[in-house]
Amino acid sequence: MAASPARRPHTGRNRNQATRQAILDASLDLLISGEAAMTMESLAAAAGVGKQTVYRWWPSKAAVLAEALSGRARDLVPAADTGTVLGDVTAFLAAMFRSANQPGVGRALRMIMAEAQTSPQAAQVLRAYTAGRRQALRTVLERGVDRGQLPPDADLDLIIDQAFGFVWYRLLVGHAPLSRRAATDLAKRLLPPCGA
Amino acid sequence: MAASPARRPHTGRNRNQATRQAILDASLDLLISGEAAMTMESLAAAAGVGKQTVYRWWPSKAAVLAEALSGRARDLVPAADTGTVLGDVTAFLAAMFRSANQPGVGRALRMIMAEAQTSPQAAQVLRAYTAGRRQALRTVLERGVDRGQLPPDADLDLIIDQAFGFVWYRLLVGHAPLSRRAATDLAKRLLPPCGA
Amino acid sequence: MAASPARRPHTGRNRNQATRQAILDASLDLLISGEAAMTMESLAAAAGVGKQTVYRWWPSKAAVLAEALSGRARDLVPAADTGTVLGDVTAFLAAMFRSANQPGVGRALRMIMAEAQTSPQAAQVLRAYTAGRRQALRTVLERGVDRGQLPPDADLDLIIDQAFGFVWYRLLVGHAPLSRRAATDLAKRLLPPCGA
Amino acid sequence: MAASPARRPHTGRNRNQATRQAILDASLDLLISGEAAMTMESLAAAAGVGKQTVYRWWPSKAAVLAEALSGRARDLVPAADTGTVLGDVTAFLAAMFRSANQPGVGRALRMIMAEAQTSPQAAQVLRAYTAGRRQALRTVLERGVDRGQLPPDADLDLIIDQAFGFVWYRLLVGHAPLSRRAATDLAKRLLPPCGA
DNA sequence: CGATAAGCGAGACGGTACGTCTCGTCTTTGA
DNA sequence: TCAAAGACGAGACGTACCGTCTCGCTTATCG
Fold first, then answer.
1. Cα-Cα end-to-end distance for chain D
2. Which of B86, B168, C41, C45 has its CA 20 to 30 A from that of A102?
3. Radius of gyration of chain A (CA)
4. Which helix (H) or strand (E) holds C157?
5. In the complex, which subunits touch A with 3 or more CB pairs below 8 angstroms?
């Protein structure tokens, strides 16, 4: 077994994971405090880090946010198995709502979305992030199809976009809360006999 | 009959509606051309207007966009009466999708949404705009309730947020098109027997 | 012989001298208070007057200042006759120094000078003003020549520019005061046997 | 020997002297061409530099001008030693007149003076500049005292302010030229037996 | 007596420049 | 080679004034 792919064994100082983490932490701090818009400059300053270091690790502000945020989000969405699709979807939505209600997470999501409307890189980050989330929900739904709790011809894409659309819409416009009750009601409305 | 409240009737040169319209037109032109982000400077230049004049009429970029856009949107959504809720909602969604698919309108909506995440004024503009649109859909749905085509206890807020959430989500993320077919399918999924 | 030049005798409302005076007064108030730079807008506002009215009476800011100021200066410089050139010049300088030391007058002079460096109209106003002042001093000096207290070939221009140069220099740079003592000493230095 | 005061030795990119010089050069170019008033924006553009960079090096327009100009002025006024005060002062004045007659230098001086009347920073710059010039002339005069060509009780401040006042007055008002002849005549009038 | 013509306060308008802010890149020094 | 610091070109931001141009009104003079 030749170690061909890693040609040059490595020289120079190693990247400092602590630095990386400091940036992620600082980004969440800034978002949670919410005193001012998070700029690359304020982020670097808050992390006690050079701007270049931020750019070395991530290509754009949105990428930082996406990572800071996915670190938080990961443990919150284990896609539990409650035995029924309705239960699973309700649990999924409830977890998602809870997460989005955390000030830092909600603000981060909103900033990523905002950035994505102007910056192509941010758009890509957003696409990747949302694709991952959609896949998670799709998995839950497909389990329901396997169990026979959902018809095999159900349009999962439509259901998924309705679910995430609802969350994002309330998050971005802020006209109504993402309450526990809303999660329950929404789950019911998403699943058959709808659109039968 | 006291006429006290209106003390000084008005002095000074009148605001020039043509100027105002020139700015709105220029903003749509810039959005549709989409060559670069619309800045207040490029907008003023394109309209052949001083920057101050733009700020005299609108407090923020988002406010200009919202107005430019609602001017367009108004005639597109006449909330036609087709006899059935399903028909009405389908028509409503189809019109909305068509409008959002126009390059200028879609881009304007996305920029307003982006601005609203950082600027409080933009957020207010967005709230006003979305409230108007929600009311339009609510009117359509209430007509359905009156006709007995929708149960009187239907949670209209949920339906409405699902509908607009879907549109905005696809518009902002761009992972899937707002096709005619999607409008039809979505309409079916929004109305009972869903969530019964 | 028709009286062609004055064709139409005049119609319309008469110019209001009170308005004119209000502007001059306001300009001095602004200068004396010295809180901020005197702009045409602040001047009009302080005088309770439309901007156009100021421009109707004077072509430029400097013209207003020059007039506001010459109104003040007039009575201060009667070019008294003390019997000797030295006495006359000393009195002239002392009066000039005293006038320039008044906060409003000094500031007005400085602003006119500043304006004159960029605006041609202001330059013209300044030229007219300074020419008048130079003429006043020249009259005093010529009286000295007539009396035989100054040689007939004395270079009055040089003396005059030295005198006014001294005042303006100290006024504009502000490194040394225009004291009573300085007036006396300067007067002595300006007159023969200097440069004999 | 404590090395305490200079803690952090310096990090970050060094200031680029070439950039600095480009700005100074551009400022003189703009002044000499004299097509329009020198603005910070035109200056930055002419130097091929961001506006911020100009502000990084100098706090105000006047500061740039003062520096651009003192760079020029330095070599022009070597305070030559001709053996007599009269000769030295004549040379000093002649050099000063010659310098002020250069279009760029004269314009720069006038603009600094104008700026100094409104901007405190510019005033400070002007004070520093004029103080340096006064010191130069004072040195010449003191040499005269040492040589016994000037009485030890001569009021040098008065002589100095007369000299510079004359120059500035003619420069700012522009009613008479700063000719070679004027330099000679002025020098004679500045020195004893004047004010004896 | 109108009709006509200013004068006037107010303020909109097209401009220009201001000084600040952020972006993403580049360069220096020390670790 | 990495990292902190920060200079740099670029350009948008929102504000301040400029001088001109209407507005709706008031006040004078003339036919």
1. 56
2. B168
3. 20
4. helix C156-173
5. B
Please answer yes or no on whether D185 and C158 come within 8 Å at the CB atom.
yes
State how far the alpha carbon of B175 is from the alpha carbons of A127, B169, B170, in Å: 7, 9, 6
Mean pLDDT rounded to a whole number for chain C? 88
At D152, the amino acid letter reads P
What is the sign of the dihedral through the CA atoms of B30, B35, B39 and B42? negative
Regions of chain D with pLDDT less than 70: 1-9, 72-79, 195-196
Q: Are C189 and C151 in contact (CB under 8 A)?
A: no
| CA–C1' A38–F4 (A) | 20
Give the pLDDT confidence of B52-91 residue by residue, as tens digits: 999 999 998 888 988 887 776 655 556 678 889 999 999 9
Chain A residues closer than 8 Å to B194 by CB: 189, 193-195
pTM over 0.85: no
Which residue, C87, C91, C37, C94, is CA-closest to C61? C37
Inspect the interface and report whether the beta carbons of B185 and A165 lie closer than 8 Å. Answer: no
Interface test with B, best of A169, A178, A179, A184 (most B CBs within 10 A): A169
Look up residue C194 and give its two tokens.
């200097």
Q: How far apart are CA C41 and CA C55, in angstroms?
A: 11
What are the helix (H) ranges across B77-119? 85-101, 103-116
Residue A140 near residue B142 (C-beta atoms within 8 A): no
Those residues whose C-beta lies under 8 Å from the C-beta of residue C139, and which sit 6 or more positions away, are: C79
Tell me what pLDDT residue C169 has: 98
Backbone phi and psi for residue A14, each to the nearest 5 degrees, phi listed first: -75, 150
